[in-house]
UniProtKB/TrEMBL annotation:
One of its GO terms (molecular function) is cysteine-type deubiquitinase activity. This is Ubiquitin carboxyl-terminal hydrolase. InterPro entries: Papain-like_cys_pep_sf, Peptidase_C12_UCH, Peptidase_C12_UCH_sf, UCH_AS. Preferentially binds diubiquitin; the interaction does not hydrolyze diubiquitin but, in vitro, inhibits the hydrolyzing activity on other substrates. SUPFAM superfamilies: Cysteine proteinases.
Length: 208
């Protein structure tokens, strides 16, 4: 991906700190702790949404996570795949090649394809964790997880490879996307108020 778009930390959730994030923002990544409270909520949410039958846009690119400790890579793929109209890729981009080859696959087929694509996993796990400590190896046991938020067709989607399907949260727009995504991030934080291990990363256009 060419450097016209960059991942950068969001340092706070109040309007003043959000105002310094370069705009436009096309994706938000949330790193959060996987706790018992979250796992219980996740199960309840899945059961509820199965009954509601969300109308997921066919334009949403979603991939399941079947590789351990690859959530950073999955988050990056979700962020980039759903914003290809905004981004520029280098001619030899392994990620662009992966997206082109998997565009018509199911989420599970994409996951199986990723398992065999070593270049994507090795190259991009670190990219999605800019500002973080060294990425864990695939054999480490970790309890932190990356998810992505994107705007597809004016809807705010949560994309989590551990979940069976995308989650629609609300309507959104290019102008309000960061603030709308942050509101969902606040819900994650409120669910575990004693936790401090939350990081928000925005994919935004370089202001230079």
């Amino acid at each position: 991906m060419k450097p016209t778009w960059q991942f950068g930390d969001v340092y706070g959730l109040d309007p003043e700190l959000l105002s310094i994030v370069p705009r436009p923002v096309c994706a938000v990544l949330l790193l959060f702790p996987v706790t018992e409270k979250y796992e219980a909520f996740k199960q309840e949410e899945e059961e509820k949404l199965k009954d509601q039958r969300q109308e997921i846009s066919p334009d949403v690119y979603f991939i399941k996570q079947t590789i351990g400790n690859a959530c950073g890579t999955i988050g990056l793929i979700h962020a980039v795949a759903n914003n290809q109209q905004h981004l520029e890729f280098d001619g030899d981009s392994a990620l662009k090649t992966f997206l082109d080859k998997t565009t018509k696959m199911t989420p599970k087929e994409r996951a199986a394809f990723l398992e065999k694509d070593e270049s994507i996993r090795v190259t991009h796990e670190s990219s999605a964790q800019e500002g973080q400590t060294e990425a864990p190896s695939l054999d480490d046991k970790v309890n932190l997880h990356f998810i992505a938020f994107v705007n597809v067709g004016g809807q705010l989607y949560e994309l989590d490879g551990r979940k069976p399907f995308p989650i629609i949260h609300s309507k959104t727009s290019e102008d309000t996307f960061l603030e709308d995504a942050v509101e969902v991030c606040k819900v994650f934080m409120a669910r575990d108020p004693q936790e401090v291990r939350f990081t928000i990363i925005a994919l935004s256009k370089d202001s230079d």
